[in-house]
Amino acid sequence: MKALLEKPAVKRLLASWQRFTERQGPQHAAAITYFSVLTIIPVLMLFGAVTGFTLTVVRPDWLEVVRSTINEVLGGSQISQSVVATLDRALESWRGLGITALLTASYTGSGWIGNLRVGFCEMLRPEDADSQLQKQGFLKSLIRNLAVFFGLLLCMVVVLAITILGMAFAEQLGVLGGIARILLTVGVSWIMFAFLFLTLPEEKLPVRHWATGALGGAVLVTTLEHFAGLIIGAFSGNPTAAVFGNVIIIMLLLNLVAMIMLVTSSWTGVRQAWEGGEPLTASTDDTPDGSEPSSEEETVHTWAEKRRRERVAARRDLDELRSDNFDPLDVPTPDPNRSVPEDVAARGVKVGMGVGYGVGAATGLGLGAVLTAVVAWLRRR
User: Where are the transmembrane segments (predicted)?
Assistant: First the structure.
C-alpha cells in the first residue's frame, strides 16, 4: 500500500482531492447544481422556440410531415386534430416564447457560468495567488459569462448532433458499434471539457496541462452516463419511485457532473503546480530567494501546512517551550510587510457586517417592544 501511495499518479490524485476539499469544492458544486436546475427550463423553452422557428419559417415542409405522422399514429380522429391544432399554436408563438426564454436563460445562465467560473478558477489558482474575478467590472463579467453560456449551448448542440449520428451508425455494427459508441461519448465529452478549459480560467493554460484532465473528466462522465442508465432502469420498475425517481436522479447527476468538473480542474491545477507553475517546496523561515534551504527543512505541498509550520510553537525547540524555560515576554515581533489575505479580509468584513446587522435588528426590536409597552401603560392610566 505504501508503494502504491508513493506513485506519482496516486500522489497527484490525492493532492487533487485534498485541494478540492480544502477549497470548498462540495459547496461550489452545490451552487453550480442549483443554477443548473434553474437553467434547464429556460434552455428547453429556447430549444422549443428554435424548433418553432425552424418548422414555421425555415422548413415549413417538415411541419407537414409532423402533422401527417400525428394523424397516422392517432388514426385521424378528433384527438389527432386537437393535438395538431395545439402543436400549430405552440409553434406559431415561437417569437414570444423565444424572447421570454432568452431573457430568463440569460439571467440563469449567467449565474450558472459565474458560479462555475468561480469554482473552476478556485481549483486552478496557485496557493498564494489572489483572485482576479472580483477585479472585473459587472458589465464585462456579465458579457463574458453570457458569451461562454451561449457558446456552451452551441457546443452542446454540436455534440448532440455528433452523438445522434454516431449512435445511428453504431447500432449497425454490433459489438464494434458498442465500443465505437463509448469512444464517441468520450470524444464528445472531451470537447465539452476542452471548451471549459479554454474559456473559464483566469489565465491561459498550456494544452499539455489541461488535455489530460479533460480526458479524465470525459472518462468519468462516460462512466457516470452508463451507471445513470442502470439506475433509471431500476427506478422505472417501481411505480412509486418512478414519480420522484427521475427528478432525484437528475439532481444527483447534475451534482456529480459539477463535482467532476471541479475535480478535473483541481487535477489540472495540481499538475501545473508540480510541473513548474509553483515551487514544490516552500521555505518556513526567512531564507532569501535564491539560497539553498537548510537540510532540516521538509517538503511542504500545501499552503495550510506552511502556515502551521510558521507558528511560534513549531519554530522553537521543546526546551524553550517548557514551563521552566518559557519567557512570556519573549514574543516575536510580527512582520509589518505581511498583509492579511484578500479572502480572509473579505470573510471578516462579511461576518462583521452580519453581526452588526443582527445586533442592530435585535436592538431595534427591543427598543420597539419597550416603547410599545410604555405607550400601552400610559393609555391604561
Answer: 32-58, 146-169, 175-198, 210-235, 241-263, 355-378
Number of helical (H) and strand (E) elements in the chain, helices listed first: 14, 0
Q: Report CA-CA distances (Å) from 48 to 97, 151, 160, 182, 246.
A: 8, 18, 16, 29, 22
Written as tens digits, the pLDDT of the chain (381 aa) is 677 767 777 787 888 888 888 888 888 898 888 888 888 888 888 888 888 888 888 888 888 888 888 777 777 677 777 888 888 888 888 888 889 988 998 888 888 888 888 888 888 877 766 666 666 677 888 888 888 888 888 877 777 777 677 666 766 766 777 787 788 888 888 888 888 888 888 778 888 878 888 898 889 988 887 777 677 766 666 666 666 777 777 888 888 988 999 999 888 888 777 665 444 433 334 444 444 444 444 555 555 555 556 665 566 666 665 655 556 666 566 666 666 666 666 666 666 666 665 656 556 555 555 556 665 666 666
Q: What are the extents of the domains in the chain?
A: 25-116, 152-278, 279-285+299-329
Q: What is the DSSP letter of 125?
A: S
Contacts made by residues 209-214, CB under 8 angstroms, sequence distance 24+: 209/268, 209/271, 209/272, 209/275, 210/268, 212/267, 212/268, 212/271, 213/264, 213/265, 213/267, 213/268, 213/271, 214/190, 214/264
Separation of alpha carbons 156 and 46, rounded Å: 14
Alpha helices (H) in 56-137, listed in sequence order:
60-74, 78-92, 94-124
For residues 142 and 62, is the Cβ–Cβ distance under 8 A? no
Q: How far apart are the first and last CA of the chain?
A: 84
Cell numbers describing residue 133: 474575478
Q: Identify whether the C-beta of residue 10 lies closer than 8 Å to the C-beta of residue 16.
A: no
- Output the 3-class SS for 254-295: HHHHHHHHHHHHHHHHHHHHHHHHCCCCCCCCCCCCCCCCCC
CA–chain centroid gap for 190, Å, is 17
Cell of 26: 462540495
The CA distance from 193 to 205, in Å, is 13
Cell representation of residue 130: 489572489
Distances 293 to 2, 280, 289, 309 between C-alpha atoms, Å: 27, 13, 10, 15
